Amino acid sequence: MSLLFILVLSGIVTYIILRQTVSKIVTIPLWILWAILMIPPVLTGATVTWSKQIPPLPVAVGICSICWFLYWRLLDWGRSNPRSLAKPIEASLPSSEEVQSQSLAESPPSELDLPITISPPESDLIAETTAIRPIEAHEEATLRTCFAWNVFFLDKIEYRPQAVLCRGKLRTDADNAYATITKNIEDLFGDRFFILFQYSLSTGKPFFALVPRPQQTLITRSRRWLDYATALILFLITLIPTTYFGAALTRFKGDLGDLVRAGLPYALSIIFILGLRDIARYFVAKIYRIDTSLPYFIPLPFLPGTYGCLVQMRSPIPDRKAVFDLGFVASMLGLALAIPLLIWGLTQSQTVPLDLKATLFSFHAFNPRFSILMTLLSKLALGSQFVADRAIDLNGVAIAAYISLLIITINLMPLRRLDGGYIVHGMFGQKPSAIVSQLSKVILLILGFIRFRSSGFGNTDLLFLAIVISLIPAIDEPALNDVSDLNNFRDALGVAILGILILTLIPVPTVLMELLGI
User: Fold this and answer.
1) CA proximity to 363, closest of 316, 304, 415
2) Best CA proximity match to 17, nearest among 33, 6, 5, 4
3) pTM of structure
4) Is the Cβ–Cβ distance between 196 and 211 less than 8 Å?
5) Is 80 helix (H, G, I), strand (E, B) or coil?
6) Do 119 and 139 meet the contact criterion of CB atoms below 8 Å apart?
7) Could you give the residue ranges of the DSSP H alpha helices within 289-429?
8) d(CA 344, CA 381)
9) E strand or H helix at 142
10) Is the CB of residue 472 less than 8 Å from the CB of residue 454?
11) pLDDT band at residue 54, thresholds of 50, 70 and 90?
12) SS3 500
């Protein structure tokens, strides 16, 4: 009965969140999206009920990843459904939670990748969209005066059903050009347009695009109390599965009080690491004045109990610096919390005989030699206790920190909607980041196959993860100003944090194992 109550409660909360976040930006029936999100908990509940066992972590992660992939694909499709669009144009507009227009033309993914959906801001206002005001023919002369010849020499203006494309030659640095022309357009046209500055995916030359904003009639209605109440309820619900799985991992025996005492170290550790990581992303978005939802914890009815918080961005990202910071700050804070906690947890753990058949999720016979980073941290924490024929029996805090580190590392993959995708996009831009994303998928598949073969075709963890990740789209949405480059300092930070990803994925070479005596 308690499991059924949790499933019903999670279903109700999931439906409420969907109603508040995506119901007004997609044409797909809401119950379809809700059903996809409820597949993992329902399957987990059925498995626990009939077999009295928790599904293996690789299976749970696979099912959850596939469902999230289907959810995001349907969400993207729902925002570009031909029923609400007119006809194709040369440029494509980015699909995301940021900007929306129900009367824009359908466009193939070629140049413009603009988010065109205006979600209601969090600040007590709900927007009611009315007709879009297109640019008039006589306004072209006014528009041309916004482009100074020594800033951006305007060559031609192209009209599209969903945008006005301004092509020409950049005569100054990108930051100055975007700031100057944006100010000129806003002075003459007000807030009629979203102003994009990005590279053409076909020619590689920068161009400006003006996309009409939907007019809005603002209706005052306070909903902030409901948002905070939802966030608090989800946090409290997340404590239930994380405490339960934390206790199960310690093989506890006893009553409810013993369960809570055994499971809380794991629960508090993983909520602390993953929660603060996503809360940091929320505050970075606020610094750049990006409209976002509150951080909502996502409880999971299978190990690890949560993936952290969902922070939905509902307005465009202003530039590549903001794109980079959204990914870097969250990941860096997560690593800064996870690594010290992992080291402390390892010092409280015991070594056990090495089991060569152990997997990534064999927490009580943990073999860290699959990763240079994990091996170095284990040797640092355990010293002479960690030798060639020994593995590690992780305690609750170490398990939470290790799982958090795995989640953070997976998020550092340079793929769409992941932290690594934001970082690489900020460093290189939209098109190069898509190329890096495709290359990383190939490399991860190769590493997964090598691990699978070296284990005697018995260890499929990394290969399974690589196959799931290969389903994630490569190309990301651009920022409004997607031309301006980062400074050298941020580039160096990006290289450093991606280096941690490499250290986590690469197995320990034989030379290093001999040097460390493991």
Assistant:
1) 304
2) 33
3) 0.74
4) yes
5) coil
6) no
7) 320-347, 372-382, 396-411, 419-428
8) 7
9) helix 140-144
10) no
11) low
12) helix
